[in-house]
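SEQUENCE, STRUCTURE TOKENS:
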Amino acid sequence: MSAGAVVGGAPSERRPGALAGQTVVVIGGSSGIGLETARQARSEGANVVLVGRNQERLEHAAREIGAQSSAAFDATDFERLDRFFDELPTTINHIMVTSGGPYYARLADMDFAWARHNVEAELWLPLHIVRRAVGKVRPGGTLLFIGGTGGRRPEAGTLIAAFTAAMPALTKALAVELAPVRVNLIAAGFVDTPLSASLLGDQLEARREQLRTTLPIRRVVGPADIAALAVHLMINTAATGATYDIDGGQQLVEG
């Protein structure tokens, strides 16, 4: 089955090899959600291109899943990002962006140098990628962003609250402007990833146990849960302009 036949209007149900012949670019693909999404996309027959900052970790990930290629650079280096898109040998079907991370800080405690970097990763990076995706992503393909739900609580911090509110609106606007390329946002709660481990340190296991006890699903959300939704959104050609919460019911039981 050709990539055009799958992306351009084929039925949206999940089936083995549903991404066969398609190319998926994962920015932030060396670990966690990005790597697991790449792995699941490969299991559906996709060719995968990985981007990440750490060359050694990225090369290991690329070998592990059999990636078509990989490129090690900081995606917020926008000149290098432009070269990356220029160097892609063919048009692609899907781009997923998982790089960046939450910055929980009250205004009084904010490190403005780090805040500027966070703005680049959370706002300017998606916009740069979207602009470069025009003409590179095939009609019916997907731009997929990973956001969060934690910033919906005002006490989470000034900057993260602003980005959490802005991303669903940005997703809707881009879905209209870029059509027939599709744009979607996954808003995750706590996900048990290396990034979460680095943020929580020795408090990680206590957080896991709290979630096992309080979440309606009675387990911690993992990268595979997010990846399964991401791959579904690549396959389901009716999905665009939407924000998909996936947090195990975290918002239902936490203030």
